[in-house]
Design a protein that fits this description.
Strand content: under 5%
Radius of gyration: 25 Å
Structural class: mainly alpha
Helix content: 40-55%
Order of helices and strands: HHHHHHEHEHEHH
Shape: extended
Number of strands: 3
Largest sheet: 3 strands, parallel
Strand order of the largest sheet: 1-3-2
Oligomer: single chain
Distance between the termini: 59 Å
Number of helices: 10
Length: about 280
């Protein structure tokens, strides 16, 4: 029984590896092979002595409309529009990519730039693989680079899911590490409810990671903080997280001379306002 169950799994893994290694894949053939591998695994794993029950199970999972397999579907996607040379030449960023950007990226960089103006609220809706992350990543890094003389957190990025925050943390790490103007000068921290153990969570920036250790983030607040609403709530309300907001960057939001309780109240009023739709 165990051998029968493991063989289709190995076959599915080997099939996936072979397909991934091919430069040109035939989509229809790929879909058929994956489907057959999954069916073989299910047949080996779920066996029934009663032939009628076995056939009913097979008919159930392979039903053309109610079964577990749909498609295959063909996606017809037009290429994303490249920015014109004139717009690229006038990108208002010091920290910018060395590859030709898309039109929506350049438009977002103009709106989010802090060069002699305040950044404008920006909503980006575009397809997968179109560089939505880069649309805000470079303006954020550019702002931190321009303000590196100021201590403390300069940008807070909120994520609905920890998995997305973790994935984009690596993007930030790679971009910062790959630019000599940023490496060793600009820091980012992942503040999502983990990171309490020095041994398991990075305390320094790396080529593939940002700072994740909780004590390090509190002791030396990074320039960029990647977090979620729950942890932001804790950070604003709990006294032991108050060190995050130390420094001059928050003077305009939290006036000097206020005690801790008043500062927390002001911070929560700002947070509540943002929840109600304020950009």
């Amino acid at each position: 029984m165990e051998r029968r169950a493991s063989s289709p799994i190995l076959k599915l893994v080997a099939c996936s590896q072979q397909l991934a290694a091919q430069k040109h894949m035939i989509s229809l053939q790929q879909a058929i092979e994956i489907k057959e591998s999954i069916l073989a695994y299910l047949r080996a794993t779920f066996t029934f002595q009663d032939k009628k029950v076995h056939q009913a199970f097979y008919d159930f999972i392979t039903h053309p409309t109610e079964g577990m397999f749909k498609g295959p579907y063909i996606s017809l996607r037009l290429p994303f529009v490249k920015a014109n040379p004139e717009e690229i030449a006038n990108i208002p960023l010091t920290i910018k990519p060395d590859w030709p950007p898309y039109d929506h990226q350049v438009k977002s960089w103009h709106r989010l730039s802090t060069l002699e103006k305040k950044p404008e609220p920006t909503w980006i809706t575009t397809g997968t693989g179109s560089g939505k992350t880069e649309s805000f990543l470079f303006p954020v890094l550019d702002y931190c680079y321009q303000q590196q003389h100021r201590y403390g957190i300069k940008v807070i990025i909120l994520y609905p899911m920890n998995a997305l925050a973790t994935d984009q943390a690596e993007r930030f790490a790679e971009t910062i590490h790959g630019d000599d103007r940023l490496k060793g000068k600009i820091t980012a921290g992942l503040f999502i409810g983990e990171g309490k153990d020095n041994k398991n969570f990075p305390t320094t920036m790396g080529p593939k990671n940002i700072i994740e250790n909780r004590e390090t983030i509190l002791g030396s607040p990074p320039d960029i903080l990647l977090t979620n609403f729950k942890m932001l709530d804790y950070a604003l309300m709990k006294a032991n997280y108050h060190d995050l907001w130390s420094g001059k960057n928050w003077e305009n939001l939290i006036p000097k001379g206020k005690n801790l309780k008043q500062k927390q109240k002001i911070s929560m009023e700002l947070y509540t306002a943002s929840e109600k739709g304020t950009p």
